[in-house]
Write a structure and sequence with these properties.
Strand order of the largest sheet: 1-2
Number of domains: 1
Structural class: mainly alpha
CATH topology: Fumarate Reductase Cytochrome B subunit
Number of helices: 5
Oligomer: single chain
Largest sheet: 2 strands, antiparallel
Helix content: 55-70%
Number of strands: 2
Shape: elongated
Strand content: under 5%
CATH class: Mainly Alpha
Length: about 190
Amino acid sequence: MALAPKTRYDGVAMIIHWLTAVLMIYMVFFGEDLMKSGMHAAKAGDAANATFEPSIHVSIGVTILLLTILRIVWRLTHTAPAYPASMKRYEVVGSKSLHGLFYLLLIVLPLTGWLAFGEVSAELPALAGTTIFGAMPVPAVPFTAGIFSDIHSLGSNLAMFLIGVHVLAALKHQFIDKDGIFGRMLPW
């Protein structure tokens, strides 16, 4: 008896996807504000409030990195559902490329954020008390080259663009193509 082809992602992949999506969308829209708030408090000499919002930013960034590593390990050990036969070759290539860029960004953004944090905390020592999950200080940065903040910002803008493309593509598949792609990542 042949097994039916897999048409949906499993529950673990869905949970990781949606948790990462929510956190990433939050960070793209509010992450910079969290850091700026802490920097303003540090510049104003308000050390007590300088680290609260940057700690949230850093903790979410670490969570995104950990979820991404888990997602990659899960993906390497669990097959994804096949694309519908109706999808055109350029759509499959585009989908794989988009997902590859997402994986890259979901690793590069937290790492460049950490390296950029070294630059910021060197300029504003009050931020040195920023913690990860309130449990440990942000590890010291081995070097600060002055470019990581720009790379982090550029990556954030690229992520914002890719999120838009991803959502539009999912909606196209749902409402125009009606090929079931959107439902592969939905729990119902």
